[in-house]
Design brief:
Layout (H helix, E strand, L loop, with lengths): L15 E10 L2 E11 L4 E5 L6 H8 L7 E6 L2 E2 L4 H7 E4 L11 H11 L4 H14 L15 H12 L6 E5 L7 H16 L3 E6 L2 H7 L2 E6 L2 E6 L1 H5 L6 E5 L3 H11 L3 E3 L4 E5 L4 H13 L6 E5 L3 H9 L16
Parallel strand pairs: 3-8, 3-9, 6-7, 7-8
Antiparallel strand pairs: 1-2, 1-4, 4-5, 9-10, 11-13, 11-14, 12-13
């Protein structure tokens, strides 16, 4: 992913950077020296099984707990030397809602405005704007305990935005939501990033990371097992291939000879060629067919999905969740 740049052409500082972050509880090492670099205005997803250290990383970077080793900067502030500067620049939405169910949605928002020391008139304006933005106006006067799960999560994020943070940590923000509410939350996250906010997201939903993240890091046993875009991570796992299907048996036989190392399916008149799914490899297959004057009736590219990546990197695909069945072709 290209480095974000300021208007003067110079690289802008990372929203979040960390080198060698470590954390242990007794003899249990939770984070074993992780490095992070997250450009401003992007979505970064930290994935991993339960107990991998995701929430611990968020707590350290949001100043809720201290690291045992390593260095980090958040919004240009050194985590150890300027924790107040970090807190002033960030918002945090944890796994468990900070919403007070005994008061109304509007009262929750005004309480946050008071905590941010906003003047009364400014606080009411900000609260009203955010309630409208998150489609909570009709429910604003109702006790928050009457809200659905999706409404509570929307209110939770709206409360986080009262202080106008430029970096938001979302720790498993859609856990427990139904698919419709989850997709609504995805749209909210996309809109935040469009507005220039940087989002640090932890999740166990594979599709969530695939849909939202500019870059993904896989955390396993306290270490970053791999990092990259979703497509780059998928290419780490063998099993990708191009499938060619023919209706003409003679074209099928000619393609078999022209392409060399292929897996044949004589009944379906289909060939399977190992491929990492890259444009370069796909062009190579097509060039070889063109040179031999052969045209396939159907071409599909099959790549490993994030399920396969997690199984390979963490040894337990079951430890992560996916909203939808795996697709054969990506």
């Amino acid at each position: 992913m290209p480095t974000s740049r300021r208007g003067d052409g110079h690289p802008s500082p990372a929203a979040v950077s960390a080198v060698g972050l470590r954390k242990a509880y007794g003899d249990k090492t939770v984070l074993d020296g992780i490095d992070l670099h997250i450009p401003s205005g992007t979505v970064f997803a930290l994935l991993g099984p339960n107990g991998a250290g995701k929430t611990t990383a968020v707590k350290i970077l949001s100043t809720l707990i201290s690291a045992d080793g390593g260095q980090a900067r958040v919004a240009g502030h050194d985590l150890a030397a300027s924790p107040d500067g970090v807190r002033a620049a960030i918002g945090v939405t944890g796994q468990f809602s900070a919403v007070d169910g005994l008061i109304t949605g509007e009262e929750n928002m005004l309480l946050m405005a008071d905590l941010h020391h906003l003047p009364k008139r400014e606080g009411r304006r900000v609260a009203a704007d955010l309630l409208e933005r998150f489609d909570l106006v009709d429910a604003a006067k109702k006790p928050a305990q009457s809200y659905s799960g999706g409404m509570k999560r929307r209110l939770d994020i709206a409360m986080t935005l009262v202080g106008n943070p430029r970096i938001i940590f979302l720790d498993e923000p859609t856990t427990g939501l139904d698919p419709r509410s989850r997709h609504n939350m995805w749209q909210i996250i996309r809109e935040l990033v469009t507005g220039g906010v940087t989002v640090f997201l932890t999740t166990q939903y594979l599709e969530e990371a695939d849909q939202l993240a500019d870059r993904i890091a896989v955390l396993n046993d306290g270490r970053i097992a791999a990092e990259g875009t979703a497509d780059e991570l998928k290419r780490l796992v063998p099993g990708g291939h191009v499938r060619l299907r023919f209706s003409d048996p003679s074209a099928y036989r000619s393609a078999t000879s022209a392409l060399g190392a292929v897996t044949r399916d004589d009944e379906a008149l289909a060939l399977q060629i190992p491929s990492d799914g890259s444009q370069r490899e796909l062009r190579s297959v097509l060039d070889r067919l063109d040179s031999a004057g052969i045209e396939a009736d159907e071409l599909t590219v099959h790549t490993p999905d994030l399920d396969d990546v997690f199984f390979a990197l963490t040894g337990s695909a079951a430890a992560l969740r996916s909203d939808q069945p795996k697709e054969d072709a990506r």
